[in-house]
């Protein structure tokens, strides 16, 4: 089952259990995701963390009860998953700028976006397989020990690294990094460096070491099964039009970092790669 389908089912599950305690870990487990992967995927589709989504859905359900029934506010608060009438009233005022009682008198109606509409909206944000609105993240200095080579022969460079990766000591994790550096202003001529991050470059004998300075990055999620061919044009378009950031260079050359964590599963359904474009404020 595609990850999008499972996320859609998870959203429906949440809506059916709004009157019960809900946590990222419990919902992720119910749909066979790790909590980390589920949180990232959920936030990308919905545009908000799960806790904020649940609070909003509970308030929307409460709106329907407030306007469409004569139930006391205390009963509405409890059946919509709030701990107390006081917490319900505070959350309601924060979102709707009026008390539940005033809302009942106003006769207003609030309609929720359906699960299907959210999935459709997310799909429309994809260009090929890339979410075209990146997250801005910060990363400390990266010391990447590995193998460098021709950017047009990346598969061979990875093979060379993986053949000796077991000899690398002091790696920080099994998450992989692929750094692509443009050579001589020609986007078709690139050097690629692949490997793992380490604490100490001096302890990495037999490996080439590339140090990337601390930076902000525009982080794009690429969904492999949706397509992996349009990422360059999508990133270029964002850099041209965002108005706040420009690409940061490494030794006067453009570069990007591809990041492979537990969400990368090769060509399998649901496989994700992050592409980080180093940026600085205009």
Determine Rg (CA atoms, Å). Answer: 23 Å
Helix/strand class: alpha+beta
- Which stretches are poorly predicted, pLDDT < 50 over at least 5 residues? none
**What is the terminal-to-terminal distance?**
43 Å
CATH superfamily of the largest domain: Regulatory factor, effector binding domain
Number of helices: 10
Number of strands: 12
The helical percent reads 25-40%
Rounded mean pLDDT score: 84
Outline the biggest β-sheet.
10 strands, antiparallel
CATH architecture of the largest domain: Alpha-Beta Barrel
CATH class of the largest domain: Alpha Beta
Task: Name the overall outline.
Answer: elongated
Beta-strand share of residues: 25-35%
CATH names the topology of the largest domain as Multidrug-efflux Transporter 1 Regulator Bmrr, Chain A
Tally the structural domains: 2
List SSEs in N-to-C order: HHHHHHHHEEEEHEEEEHEEEE
Description:
The chain has 282 residues and is α+β, with helices and mostly antiparallel strands. The protein folds into 2 domains: 3-124, Orthogonal Bundle (Arc Repressor Mutant, subunit A); 130-281, Regulatory factor, effector binding domain (Multidrug-efflux Transporter 1 Regulator Bmrr, Chain A, Alpha-Beta Barrel), CATH 3.20.80.10. 39% of the residues lie in helices and 27% in strands. The protein is built from 10 helices and 12 strands. Strands 3, 4, 5, 6, 7, 8, 9, 10, 11 and 12 form a 10-stranded antiparallel sheet that branches. A two-stranded antiparallel ribbon has the order 1-2. Strand 1 (126-127) and strand 2 form a beta hairpin. It is elongated, with a radius of gyration of 23 Å. It starts with a helix and ends with a strand.
């Amino acid at each position: 089952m595609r990850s999008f389908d499972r996320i859609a089912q998870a959203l429906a599950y949440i809506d059916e259990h709004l009157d019960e305690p809900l946590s990222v870990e419990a919902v992720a487990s119910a749909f066979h995701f790790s909590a980390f992967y589920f949180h990232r995927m959920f936030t990308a589709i919905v545009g908000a963390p799960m806790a904020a989504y649940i609070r909003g859905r509970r308030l929307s359900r409460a709106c329907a009860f407030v306007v469409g029934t004569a139930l006391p506010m205390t009963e509405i608060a409890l059946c919509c998953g709030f701990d107390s009438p006081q917490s319900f009233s505070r959350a309601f005022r924060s979102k709707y700028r009026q008390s539940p009682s005033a809302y009942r008198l106003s006769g207003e109606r609030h309609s929720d976006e359906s699960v299907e509409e959210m999935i459709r909206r997310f799909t429309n944000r994809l260009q090929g397989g890339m979410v075209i609105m990146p997250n801005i993240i910060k990363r400390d200095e990266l010391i990447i020990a590995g193998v460098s080579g021709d950017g047009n022969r990346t598969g061979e460079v990875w093979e060379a690294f993986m053949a000796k990766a077991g000899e690398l000591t002091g790696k920080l994790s099994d998450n992989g990094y692929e750094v692509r550096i443009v050579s001589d202003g020609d986007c078709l001529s690139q050097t690629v460096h692949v490997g793992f991050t380490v604490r100490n470059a001096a302890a990495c004998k037999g490996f080439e070491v590339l140090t990337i300075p601390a930076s902000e990055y525009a982080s794009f999620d690429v969904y492999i099964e949706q397509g992996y061919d349009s990422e360059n044009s999508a990133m270029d378009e964002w850099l041209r039009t965002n108005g706040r950031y420009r690409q940061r260079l490494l030794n006067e050359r453009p570069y990007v970092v591809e990041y492979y964590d537990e969400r990368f599963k090769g060509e399998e359904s649901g496989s994700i790669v992050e592409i980080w474009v180093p940026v600085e404020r205009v």
